[in-house]
Amino acid sequence: MGVFALGVVLAWPSEAGAYIGPGAGFALLSSFFGVLATIVLGLLSLVRWPFRVARLAWRRRRSGRRRMGADRVRRLIIVGFDGQDPRLTDAALKAGKLPHFAALAKRGCYHRLRTTCPPVSPVAWSSFATGTNPGRHGIFDFLTRDPRTYLPLISSTRIQAATRVLRLGPYRIPLGKPDIQLLRRSKPFWSLLGDAGVWSTVLRVPITFPPDRFNGAQLSAMAAPDLLGTQGTFLLYTTRPSGERFKEGGIRIPLTFTGDRAETRITGPNNPLRAGEPPLEIVMRIARAPAGAKAVTIELPELRLTLTLPLGELSEWIPIAFRAAPLVKVRGLCRMQLTECGEHVSIYVTPLSLDPERPAMPISHPSYYASYLAARIGPFSTLGLAEDTWALNEGVIDDATFLRQAWDIDTERQRMFFAALDRLREGTLTCVFDATDRVQHMFWRQLDGSKKGDDPISEQYRRNDAFLGEVVSRLREGDLLMVLSDHGFNAFRRGVNLNRWLLDHGYLALKADRDGRAEWLEDIDWSRTRAYALGLSGLFLNIAGREAHGIVQPGEETARLKAELIKGLTGLPDGETQRAIHAMFDARVIYDGPYVDQAPDLIVGYERGYRVSWDCASGVVAGPVIEDNVKAWSGDHCIDPSLVPGVFFCSRPIANADPALIDIAPTALALFGLDAPRHMQGRPLFER
Amino acid sequence: MFGSHRIKLDPKLLERAQRCAERGGYATVEEFITHAVERACVALEESGNDDELKRRLKGLGYLS
Predict the structure, then answer these.
(1) Residue A556: burial class (beta carbons within 10 Å; 0-12, 13-18, 19+)
(2) A675 DSSP 8-state letter
(3) Element holding A217 (H helix, E strand)
(4) Would you call A152 and B55 a contact, using CB atoms and an 8 Å cutoff?
(5) Is residue A554 a contact partner of residue A545, using CB atoms and an 8 Å limit?
(6) A337-378 pLDDT, tens digit each
(7) DSSP H helices in A12-30
(8) Residue environment code for A125-137, b if the CB has 16+ CB neighbours within 10 A, otherwise e
(9) Which residues touch A116 (CB under 8 Å, ≥6 apart)?
(10) Beta carbons of A185 and B64 less than 8 Å apart
């Protein structure tokens, strides 16, 4: 058999997949070893099958699961609508716009759901998964900082390049995969259920990149990067002259036509398989349609692909492949739109999403699960924050294009949800839908003027309701359905630059020759700075022995400084009548657990209508303390958690009238007969 | 399957670690030991490439 397999491998060498990490290099699976490994793993899997069945049965017996009782279910289905707000939900329920939500509330229950502090998705969904406060799972914001350098880091993922490299002529072959680690700690409920032999499917729950390894299937979400290794970088090919760079999220590429034709390149990640790591590129030829038609033809000769882009239409997914070395390709997906076609031509290209069929990074567990889903439902976006909010912020795309993109992604998600639901016989299915969050971020500006509910946010809630109706229609006896959100939403009208406030009040100092305009705290003189802000809600003290250049002594001086800042910032006035900050929270008071020392020292709870300013979030000190937010991104939730609870609907009434997000994990365990482990802090929602 | 290694630990130390893990709010003793080792490593390692760290944040919608 082995000889046969070897023969097959040698006779039909196939193209290899490459495994990349952003800036981290490729771990090469050559065609030979790739196919051989697949065959060997397949055989091993067959041999191991009876042992796996026996092990599962043993796990189930050993797990201490109670026998079926009134509180037990066969399938637990959790639908997460990220950011669905209770006040908007109540208003729509009252107006009769959400009949399926109303029916679910009548059949079971509807409550507000207490969120986390701060009420942001990485934190909230991590508490949802683990049943613990942030001090026990270690995620406190989108960002954290390296206390050795004060530089920002994505809080949930660490990526390091493969360290050993084999040099072959112009090629550099990494010997091993990049080290990509999920930094969310503790143990999610699906892992605990898996240990007890209960299957879970987990789709697009934030902070699952790289995926957990457990008895179940998972598709990664928030923090999964694009092919360039960023959180989403769009491209704009344009003939419009402009020396300006996009402030964030995009790259402008000049386009020059000779007659009706132009030639340019799509640039991918750097190629770590080549000396010097040059960027991977493919040629893109653009031809104007004849006779003044408002369209262009795009030709990608290396991919043997030609397509027509009519003006204003967002294309379907376009497969992209970069050749990194002989038989090695890095694959992605993008969508394109011709945004103008007159005197000037501009073409928008979405961030290059990893191709789920052959992902260049680990985005699912088991590794083939993303490919399986792609085979079931077709290509789909794999980027963590998939909706291109920055392209809309920068005016590169219009409202309609953003909505088309967001709702197409929402539809992809619905299709993968139903594909998973239909196959689930027993166990849990959890799926998070992001469109509610993204649409509210980008269209809150239209909510105030909406009289007839014809705004995109109202439409999004109706979409959620229609989807819920479809879910309910597929429920079986023994199913329990929860529909919940991680936080609510509010207007974001004014931004607060805490670093500027700290500068004005003598807690922060700038270097002698700097004006505070540089990003990521570069202008700060650490030898004279006692506190600084970074991320969406956090304020750090510059503590000696913790930060590289800390000057605040731990103990009494730290406590005194905290008290001073809490007093100074609570109720921060904005003009005569407004207050920008509702409350300040001491991390040592509100959190407990082994990771509290990684948290910001103080968490800022903004008032409704306020948030950290764009400048402050990226470490800029200059500018006013409080300023108007003029971006399309006009709604937010990074405020005091008591002001933005989520929603909780369930097909069965619950015993607790004041449920919290951290109660869901122990509830999931209880519904399959498991007691919550001692480290979990939430409580089951159903009476035994 | 290829990524984990067994490390010998004195049984008494392991017992202590298990007690501490529970008291400290860790989900497992493995999590406790991993955290302890990581903290020790961070104290001795150099930090990453500055530009690369900043580049990875590009496009995060919440930031400007």
Answers:
(1) exposed
(2) P
(3) strand A216-219
(4) no
(5) yes
(6) 999 998 899 999 999 999 999 998 899 999 999 999 999 999
(7) none
(8) bbbbbbbbbbbbb
(9) A123, A124, A127, A133, A134, A486, A487, A641, A661, A662
(10) no
Nearest by CB: B59 against A248, A536, A592: A248
Q: What is the mean pLDDT of residues A238-250?
A: 78
Nearest to A647 by CA among A395, A448, A436: A436
Residue A575 CB: number of other CB atoms within 10 A?
9
Judge: B52–A130 Cβ closer than 8 Å, yes or no: no
To which H or E segment does residue A680 belong?
Answer: none
Chain B residue numbers touching A225 (CB-CB < 8 A): 56
Write out pLDDT tens, residues A633-663.
Answer: 999 999 999 999 999 999 999 999 999 999 9
The complex scores an ipTM of 0.82
pTM: 0.90
End-to-end CA distance of chain A: 54
Cα A639 to Cα A642: distance, rounded to the nearest angstrom = 9
CA distance A317 to A305: 13
Instruction: Tell me how far apart the alpha carbons of residues B46 and A148 are, in angstroms, rounded to a whole number.
Output: 9
Under a CB-based contact definition with an 8 Å cutoff, are residues A370 and A382 in contact?
yes
Task: Say if CB A380 and CB A356 are below 8 A apart.
Answer: yes
- CA neighbours within 13 Å on the CB side: how many for B15? 3
